[in-house]
Structure formats: C-alpha cells, structure tokens
Specification:
By secondary structure, the chain is of the alpha/beta class. Helix content is about 45%, strand content about 15%. Strand 3, helix 3 and strand 4 form a beta-alpha-beta unit. Helix 1 crosses helix 5, helix 18 crosses helix 21 and helix 18 packs across helix 22.
C-alpha cells in the first residue's frame, strides 16, 4: 500500500480562502500534519488539474469546508465525489470525509450522508477544528486513491454511449443518491414507502444518461448488480404488460423458471445484497396511477429509479429533475466533438447553446454534425445549415417532435408567441393580450406545458423552453419534403402576428 503524502486534503471554494489558510496553518504548525491546500487553483470556475488529483489520491482524508458557495466550484464537486466514492468502496462513503459546515442549516449539504454526519458546526474556532481534524486523520490508514474503482457486473455494452461524453450533473447525481438512500436517514428526510426515486425531464435532457452515470459511478453501493427494464415496446401493450415482459426476461436470464407473475418481483429481489433497478421509457400517457399498476420492489435492499419525460411522480416519489445543462458542462460536451475555430466561432457556439436551450440531446446532435467538418462547417455557419438542411434539423429536434405533435391549439400558440416575443411570458400580459382565451384555458395550457417540462414558472412569470420554441418554428422533414405543422386552426395562426405585436407593446409600457 502506498504511504500517504498528505494527512489532510483541504477542499475549499475561492470565497472561503482565508478560512482554509487559517486551518492549514494551524494543522501544519500546531499538529505537524502534512496538508494539501492549493490556494492557486480555487477560483470558482477553475477545473480539477493533475496536481489536485495527485494530491487527493495521496491523502488520508478530505476536509470539505461546505459553505453555501462550496458546490459552485467545479473542482470542489469533483474532489468531494472522488473522496466519497473511494470511501464507499471501503464500505462507508463518509469514511475519509470531514465536513465543516459554517452555515446555520444543512439544506445545502449533499449527499444525505453528509447532513447526517456533519463534522463541525458554526462557531467552532480554528484551534478546536484543527484538533478534531488531526484526531480523525490519525485514525485512518491508507489513502483516498488506494482502493481500486468498482464497476457493475453484467454491464450492457450499448449503455456505454451514455457514459462516454457525460458531463457534470454533480448536483443531480447527489440528489439521486440522497433520494434513493433517504430511508436510511429518517432524521434528515421525510420518507414514506420503498426506496425509489423518479428522474424526469424534457426529452433529450439526459435522464437515461444521468441514471447510467449514477449506476456506473456508485457501483460499490450495489453489489447485487443493476437491472435495466424498459417499458418501450409494442404500442398496443399496456405499461403493466411491458413490465411483466421485462420481469420474465430477467427471470429467464437468471434461470428462474415457472415463477408465477405475481411472485416475480419478490423472487428477483430475494437476496441480501443491495441492487439497483432502472425502469426507463415510462410512457408519458401512463397517468399518475402507473405506480399502482407496476409492482415495484419493496424492502431496503433494492433501490428503484423510474425515468419519465413528464412530471407524473411529483406527489408520490422524490423527483430529480434533469433540466438544461449548465453553461460550463454544455461547452465541455460540445468541445469533445468540435472545439471552436476562433473567438468568433466560440461566440457562435455559446449563442447556439442558448438557442437550443442547453438541451444535451440537441447539443450532442450538433456536435456530431460538426465533428470532422473543419474548413467546411463551423459554429458560425451552423445556424444557417440548421435552417436550410431538413436532415440536420431532424437530427437536432427529433427528441422533441413527439411533444410538439401532441400540442393543443393554445399550447402551440404560446410557443409561437414566445418565438416572436421572447421565452419569458408574464401571466398578466398574456391575460391582457389574449382576451379570446379564458384564464382557465390559459392556465390549463401552461400547466400542461409545465407537466411536460416545456415551461417553468417563477412567481407569475412563465418561461418556455428555448429548445422547444426553436423546434416549433423550424420546418419539418417528411419523405424528403419540407413541411410545416399545419394542425392549428387558420384563425389562430392568422392572429398570431397581431397577438405577438400586442405582447411586445405591453412589455414596452411596463
């Protein structure tokens, strides 16, 4: 086993630099500890470099100064997850982590294990903190990087595509882990029923990728393995019939024969090792009672992730919402496919990220198109190519076309208004400038868009997703011919320009 180079690795955000410096000095001078504290790489947007990685791997322990600003730093998020996963492989995710929480609450702490085992509270002076840290570090053997990573068994090769270019999503990964394990920490979370969580979001947002990345990175938590179930299948089959078909498939693979359908779940979960079930492709029209139709695993050994593109579990399960990629993760994703040619191309890339609503699926399609087209296409030229080439538009907007196909007249009209007037729509302005639509009908349309993650709300302002708005205004390709959606009544389409003009005028008077 490699001897530790450092007793303590200090993980601090830039705004907490002075506190980190004080603690590092106290640990070194008073307690004679070897401390890694990289003052030169702790700015908010600085990533993790080889020096930091080597220091972390060769340290006995990690001290996280977990202020509200801590998770804003990319390297902090990476450092904490690396230390947690290393501890998890040793049987305890928090084994090598000490948390200093300078805030009055614990709501910002992730994952849930950290909130349950917080190490130091506000008001603890630096001398007392150093003494606690020194005592804990002395009790540890080995280093954070000494334990080899764990990988899930029976990993389907086609799942690897979701891992190759997976970027960021640290908060969502922690939220998913906390939701699945909340039953083990009743003092930190109100939990009812089995350890299950939903992952929901707009098509193309990266829901399956998130679940896949979680299963891969947190494999040590599930020695019983990972089972993948999909409710996609024959259109005339019910979700329950598709689910039973998947259970029979798994039973057959495990050589469990002649098991009655009613006993399948119990037999498949009949082991003492923790396992993970991922149920994907839950139909958007399955309804809120889908959980009553699907006999999910119960007990504490099997965790279940349900993946849906509508918000149908908000009242029954913890929900991890997968929204737009943060800007830094979006650029990281695109740069894997094609780095900008120059500053002008970089500005065009950033504009396209915003135009496509930071949607991971759309950005992946754009990156795949631009890859290896240097000198022929660029981020600068892509917007024109998107408008001129139906096959490009089809690839970029394919994820959201089924959503558009089920829009009502009022929902489509709202998308058209957003395309002309901006994606932020104040409710008062909409009511005033759409007098032919009752508040009840308008509310129904907005709630329906919210349910499908096409819209979000902050106070009385509604924001429509730019990716969906862009897709709705882009020509569709059908058998080689460019067509536009014409399912809306001509009166609504004719009045669109007038309504958009009125909305812009109303905004100018605010």
């Amino acid at each position: 086993m490699r001897d530790p180079m450092y007793d303590v690795f200090l993980s601090f955000s830039g705004v907490d630099r002075s506190s980190g410096r004080e603690l590092a000095e106290e640990l070194r001078v008073t307690h004679g500890l070897r401390v890694f504290f990289d003052e030169h790489s702790i700015e908010t947007f600085s990533g993790i470099n080889d020096t930091i990685l080597d220091g972390l791997r060769c340290s006995r322990s990690l001290v996280a100064y977990y202020s509200e600003k801590y998770a804003a730093r990319v390297a902090c998020r990476h450092e904490l997850m690396m230390a947690f996963l290393a501890g998890q492989r040793e049987g305890d995710g928090c084994k090598r982590i000490m948390v200093i929480n300078p805030e009055q609450t614990e709501e910002h702490l992730r994952p849930i294990e950290l909130a349950d085992a917080k190490y130091a509270l506000p008001g603890t002076d630096v001398q007392a903190l150093a003494q606690l840290v020194a005592k804990r570090a002395a009790s540890l053997e080995g280093t954070i990087g000494a334990t080899a990573p764990s990988f899930p068994g029976k990993w389907p090769v086609h799942r690897s595509k979701h891992l190759k270019n997976f970027a960021g999503r640290y908060r969502e990964l922690w939220d998913l882990h906390s939701a699945l394990h909340a039953t083990g920490f009743p003092l930190q979370a109100d939990t009812i029923g089995s350890p299950a969580a939903a992952v929901s979001g707009l098509p193309g947002a990266g829901k399956t990728a998130l679940a896949t990345a979680y299963a891969w990175r947190f494999a040590a938590a599930f020695p019983g393995g990972v089972e993948w179930l999909s409710l996609a299948g024959a259109p005339d089959a019910t979700p329950h019939e598709r689910y039973l078909g998947e259970l029979r498939r798994i039973a057959q693979a495990r050589k469990l024969h002649d098991v009655p359908d009613a006993d399948l779940v119990e037999r498949l979960c009949d082991n003492e090792q923790s396992s993970l079930w991922i149920i994907d492709d839950i139909p958007p029209d399955a309804g809120t009672d889908v959980l009553e139709l699907l006999p999910l695993p119960t007990g504490t050994h099997t965790r279940t992730i349900l993946i849906s593109e509508v918000d149908q579990f908000r009242d029954t399960l913890p929900v991890v919402r997968v929204g737009p990629l943060p800007a830094e993760d979006a650029t990281t994703l695109l740069d894997v496919y094609r780095e900008p040619d120059d500053d002008q191309d970089r500005a065009a890339r950033d504009h396209l990220i915003r135009r496509l609503g930071h949607n991971a699926g759309a950005l992946t399609a754009m990156g795949d198109y631009l890859r290896d087209r240097q000198g022929l296409s660029s981020y600068v030229s892509f917007e024109d190519e998107l408008a001129a080439l139906p096959e490009v538009a089809e690839a970029v907007f394919a994820h959201v076309h089924p959503v558009l196909d089920h829009m009502t007249t009022i929902e489509s009209l709202l998308l058209r208004v957003a395309n002309e007037s901006g994606t932020t729509l104040p409710a008062a302005a909409l009511r005033k400038e759409l007098p032919d639509i009752s508040p009840s009908e308008l509310g129904n349309a907005l709630k329906s868009l919210l349910h499908r993650f096409v819209a979000s709300r902050e106070g009385t302002e509604w924001r429509l997703d730019p990716y969906v708005v862009h897709a709705a205004s882009t020509p569709r390709s059908c058998s080689g011919d460019v067509v536009r959606r014409t399912s809306q009544p001509l009166t609504a389409i004719h009045s669109f320009a007038v309504l958009a003009h009125r909305l812009r005028a109303a905004r100018s008077l605010r």
